[in-house]
Specification:
Radius of gyration: 31 Å
Largest sheet: none
Shape: elongated
Number of strands: 0
Length: 141
Amino acid sequence: MLIVETIGRIRREHWVKGKSIKEIARDLKMSRNTVRKVLRSGETSFSYEREVQPRPKLGRWREELDRLLTKNAGATARERLTLIRLFEELRSWVMRVATTRFAAMPVPGTDVMQGRRRKPMCRCRLRRAKPTSSTGVTKSS
């Protein structure tokens, strides 16, 4: 975020001292495009405010969560769900969708999966390492 002092310094460096955009960007550790933007515009401050807050993780569950929260707010104090219960309810919805998606995946061994079978691991990976003592010497069995 650019503040008024930085904008003033950029303009002084360029118009009064005659420094190039590249030198100003190097000295102030900012991009040349930012320095150009300050010099070309007559604004005294730059700010960015997001219009819509994206919620990628909760986006698809928002309607159901809002419905659950309004129902919970209207319930009596004894019948209200705690945050843990709300979390568990939301997690059960997610798990339900995940299991239905997983069920739609092709099953290994069927015609759809014929060309994609993995080779079994070699036996050397299945062997366990022999236990060693604290000195690093292999124990004899």
